[in-house]
Amino acid sequence: MERIEIHEIPGFSFGQVQDLQAGTGCTVILCPEGAATGVDVRGGSPGTRDTDALDPVCNREFVHAVVLTGGSAFGMDAAGGVMKKLEEEKIGRDVMVTVVPNVCAAVLFDLKFGDHSVRPDPAMGYAACEKALKGEPFQEGNFGAGTGCTVGKIRGPQFAMKGGIGACAFRQGDLMVGAVVACNAMGDVLERGEILAGARNDTDTGFSGSEDWLIENGRRQKDIFSGKFVGENTVIGCVVTNAALNKNQANKLAAVAQNGLARAVRPANATFDGDTVFAMCHGEVPADPDAVGSMAARAVEEAIIRSVKMAESLHGRVALRDLPFGKKGV
């Protein structure tokens, strides 16, 4: 199995727009021809659009775009801009009087980062879709939905670090599988079992260990600004593949891909998380669904690791590359 670039997977393109001053943005994963798509939602506080239609019993054959966005529930407006641009390009279901693009979305909470009054809107979604249609290179770190991401927030923002968006893709023969993930985790990001980024300790000489801290304290740290318990979490992502999988298999693929999230983030799928993974399948390559799932889980894990390695310090949140301790190599 070899590592490839995410844009090498045929049929898919990616577009991102961000507002660094406001600290938010959105990412579009586009498949103009339509992809058999599934979703797996495991977080206790998800924010999603049109995911019910992905249930195998529902009549939704293909999805044309998945939107990953900041702005909490407000950011869902970005999907409307994606729909507008796709309709202009006549991409969608033909309903005789127009086309209706099938667009799903998931949001993350970044309202306490930067300017909470600025959220991804239809104009930002429209612009991100334009970039996807142009086939612009995918950028990692403080881009798109990763712009407002932070990690290690369980002890409060003063101990948190900068998160971001990452991508990873693999090829085995003709089969290609990749993932794009925006990491806004409450807890820590791990690489090979060791904490890579997360909640820092009181002396800023190491990590507190978010999972252990939660177990030992039995609660989350209160936000020093609001006095309320910290809950601005969520890891959202999308797997893309050229495997010839149907909608049922796509849903299973999304579920297996979540294993990569559990490997890289601790704790994961918590009460205030909105952890959501989509899986888009477009291609004619015959493949064992379990093999595709194994590749997808690895891609999700590596994309999360890259999301913090590629992030840059912003709005007072230190990035891994600027951390006085820990490993930083990409």
Q: What keywords describe this structure?
A:
single chain, 330 residues, alpha+beta, three-stranded antiparallel sheet, 5 helices, 22% helix
Write structural notes for this entry:
This protein is α+β, with helices and mostly antiparallel strands. It has helices spanning 77-88, 122-134, 210-217, 247-264, 289-309; strands spanning 2-4, 13-19, 24-41, 48-49, 63-69, 93-94, 99-100, 103-107, 150-151, 161-162, 164-172, 175-183, 188-191, 194-197, 235-243, 265-266, 276-285. A hairpin with a 4-residue loop joins strand 6 and strand 7 (99-100). Helix 1 packs across helix 2 (122-134) and helix 4 (247-264) crosses helix 5 (289-309). The model is unreliable at 223-227 (pLDDT under 50).
Short description:
This protein has 330 residues and is of the alpha+beta class. 22% of the residues lie in helices and 29% in strands.
Number of strands: 17
Query: In terms of structural class, how would the helical and strand content be classed?
Result: alpha+beta
Specify the biggest β-sheet: 10 strands, mixed
Rounded to an integer, what's the Rg over CA atoms? 18 Å
The amount of beta strand, in percent, is 25-35%
Order of helices and strands: EEEEEHEEEHEEEEEEHEHEEH
On the 0 to 100 scale, the average pLDDT is: 93
**Shape, please?**
globular
How large is the count of helical segments? 5
- Specify the helix fraction band: 10-25%
Gap between N and C termini = 19 Å
Uncertain runs = 223-227
